[in-house]
Design brief:
Length: 225
Amino acid sequence: MDSATSDTSRSSSGSRAPLSSTADNGLKIVIVGGFGVGKTTMVRSVSDIRPLNTEETMTQAGRGVDDLTGVTGKSATTVAFDFGRITLNERTVLYLFGAPGQERFWFLWDRLFSGTLGAVVLVDTRRLADSWYAIDRLEHHGTPFIVARNDFGGPRYAPEEIRDALDLDEEVPLIECDARSRESSKQVLIALVEHLQQLAAAASAGTPVPVAAAALPHGVHGETS
């Protein structure tokens, strides 16, 4: 996607200011997870631009199709994907894609994962089983990822319990976050980029890692704060 001078980003004061039109290096990040875990919320909270959302109001037609266990107050749902952007420097931007969570839209995930540098898997401890498919597809594609437990007030499990429940490899970072908070969401992305850099360093040392990790520019994580 091209950067346009008409695009706007948030300045340090929180207002929107023109984005640079010089960006020519786009890094794609996908935020994925089960239904209602906070993917749309995270994209909204951290994006520099006004995010593109494809949310639709949930209706009676969805009863019996979408499992609302633990998220009965949810009134809208993503039906395609969310899109946001973060400017790292004048030449490099992160493109953020939030994947739809319902099982009936999982067929879109493989296409969203194409060309992805890395992914954030959001989990809700009220519905941990919903994250299985996301992790399975990312591992199938060889896409590096981290797992972030979104604070929705669910059961407080120890990190080891969450790892066991999700069968996470010990090398996959597991962190806490609040998707409603811009600062917390930024820290999630920083953790992902640092993880990708570690994988890239391991690759340069001869340790096999996903190919996508090697494409990460050095020093990127320092530009996101």
